Amino acid sequence: MKINRVTLSLITLILGFMVSYSYQLTKKQANEFKMTDHEWERTVQLREDLVKLEEKNNSLQKDLNDKQEELIKIEDELAENEKNLAFSAKETEKLRMVLGKVKVRGEGIIVTLDDNTYQPETGNVNNFIVHEHHVLKTVNELYISGAEAVAINGKRLKSNSYIVCNGPVITVDGEQFPAPFTISAIGNKETLEKALTMKGGIRDQLVNDNIVFKIEKSNGIIMDSIL
Hints:
- By secondary structure, this protein is of the alpha+beta class.
- Helix content is 53%, strand content 21%.
- A hairpin with a 2-residue loop joins strand 5 (169-172) and strand 6.
- The chain is rod-shaped, with a radius of gyration of 50 Å.
- It starts with a helix and ends with a strand.
């Protein structure tokens, strides 16, 4: 098919227009995105500032994490110190109780040891009376079983108390007491009772020695402090 000159000229004109438009558009876009030296320096500076801010933020975050770990350690130490303090206070109170420095009240047991009726045909009269070793056995068993405080005939015992026999009486820290001997002990009444009444225990031993042994539980034993 032959293309006449008019048609060819028209095509050439259109192509020229398209090339020209494309060039102008590309130039315009290039101009729009073209940055001045100042703008370029400003962009670089902003990027550097952003990097520094990110580095500083990371450093601050690390410091925060370190401080939080230190705080946790301090809280743990305080909790441990508080626990130790509470334990020390409890032990101090227990020691004061043992030393008789504080008045105490609580549940416990009351043991009564009394002389038995003398039977001449069975032996010596001394075999029917309470001696210091009978009292000591009872007191020691009470302490071993968890008694927090012990008193004999109302006289509270302390860490350096002594008990000696002097004929028909027993001397406790210089004070004499005749039979019957009432031994009061503050502590878990069930535990203390079982410790003394177990088979072959203190009660059986003392009964075999012709001692009258009585025991009762109480919810309100009171012992004054030792001056």
